[in-house]
């Protein structure tokens, strides 16, 4: 870990020259300078129910791996700095991000990919700088966030819109789970027992294992085989583990649904859609667009107050 810290310290001057202040790197987290003036970057908020005591959470970044660290721009906007490529390794990852997270594509309302604000070169390493987004979607239930079914389902609907957009460009994520989505804030409607007047935007991130198909490749030929990477640790659908060619677009849907398999909304029509996304039989499994449309139809025909209910946790975790 000391070696990792030395590497981040070595790149600090280069990042500073690019207008980025690197936060203090301390093992599994990095923290902002306590003297830094707080300023909204438009991607991270707190609800009044949490109060000012939680402001410090937006000044700290939990590093999921050694390749990421928190920081801020010279102007005071909080960001995340991440190693995108080292030499040729990660080049495809960076190319996909440039396509999804920059330029005109990044302006479309249905594009939920975290923006790529800047690239910084240090020797043969390319760092990408993206806005710091408030919270992980992984915390939307079973942890500290007191979210209602309506809060959670809205996140799921946005997450589906996100992957439909990505799939439409011939790109599969191959690591699609709720922990790879971020949200500006958690509404925690069960704390106020009021339907929120506005909803947090959800963002999709972590495209290291993504694959892009040529735009002229026929749909029926867009197949892959094997795991995303060697020693891949997340749950995978049967077809991905079979060694045979499979539809990676449907595999994305299964992985996303699997990450919500430990919760029930207790709304039969909504739970049925999630179950159809989780079907082991690929021919019965919903596509991302079909899941989005079916879920939107149910949600839009349901009074919001009806979803102001707690989710049913199938494997409750200790709250922290």
Structural overview:
The longest helix is centred in the middle third of the chain and has 20 residues, at 149-168. The protein has helices at residues 2-17, 91-101, 149-168, 189-192, 248-258, 268-277, 288-300; strands at residues 20-22, 24-26, 29-31, 60-62, 68-73, 78-86, 118-122, 125-131, 135-136, 171-172, 181-183, 202-204, 211-212, 263-264, 312-313. By secondary structure, the chain is α+β, with helices and mostly antiparallel strands. The chain starts with a helix and ends in a 7-residue tail after the last strand. Helix 3 packs antiparallel against helix 7 and helix 6 (268-277) runs antiparallel to helix 7 (288-300). It is 27% helix and 17% strand.
Secondary-structure topology with pairs:
Blueprint: H1 2-17, E1 20-22, E2 24-26, E3 29-31, E4 60-62, E5 68-73, E6 78-86, H2 91-101, E7 118-122, E8 125-131, E9 135-136, H3 149-168, E10 171-172, E11 181-183, H4 189-192, E12 202-204, E13 211-212, H5 248-258, E14 263-264, H6 268-277, H7 288-300, E15 312-313
Antiparallel strand pairs: 1-5, 2-3, 3-4, 5-6, 6-8, 7-8, 9-11, 10-13, 11-12, 14-15
């Amino acid at each position: 870990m000391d070696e990792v810290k030395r590497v981040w310290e070595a790149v600090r001057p280069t990042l500073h020259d690019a207008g980025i202040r690197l936060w203090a790197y301390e093992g599994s987290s990095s923290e902002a300078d306590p003297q830094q003036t707080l300023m909204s970057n438009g991607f991270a908020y707190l609800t009044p129910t949490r109060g000012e005591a939680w402001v410090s959470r937006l000044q700290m970044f939990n590093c999921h791996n050694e390749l990421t660290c928190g920081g801020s721009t010279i102007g005071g906007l909080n960001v995340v700095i991440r190693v995108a490529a080292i030499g040729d390794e990660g080049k495809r990852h960076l190319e996909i991000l440039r396509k999804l997270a920059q330029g005109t594509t990044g302006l479309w309302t249905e594009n939920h990919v975290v923006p790529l604000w800047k690239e910084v070169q240090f020797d043969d390493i390319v760092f990408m700088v993206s806005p710091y987004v408030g919270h992980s979607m992984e915390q939307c239930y079973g942890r500290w966030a007191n979210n209602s079914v309506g809060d959670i389902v809205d996140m799921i609907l946005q997450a589906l819109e996100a992957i439909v957009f990505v799939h439409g460009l011939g790109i599969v994520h191959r690591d699609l789970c709720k922990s790879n989505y971020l949200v500006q804030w958690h509404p925690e409607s069960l704390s106020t027992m009021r339907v929120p007047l506005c909803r947090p935007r959800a963002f999709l991130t972590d495209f290291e294992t993504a694959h892009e198909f040529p735009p002229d490749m026929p749909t029926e030929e867009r197949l892959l085989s094997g795991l995303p990477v060697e020693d891949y640790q997340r749950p995978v659908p049967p077809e991905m583990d079979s060694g045979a060619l499979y539809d990676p677009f449907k595999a994305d849907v299964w992985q996303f649904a699997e990450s919500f398999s430990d919760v029930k909304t207790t709304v039969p029509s909504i739970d049925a859609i999630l179950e159809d996304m989780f079907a082991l039989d690929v021919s019965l499994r919903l596509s991302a667009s079909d899941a989005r449309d079916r879920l939107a139809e149910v949600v839009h025909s349901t009074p919001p107050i009806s979803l102001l209910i707690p989710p049913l946790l199938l494997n409750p975790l200790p709250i922290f």
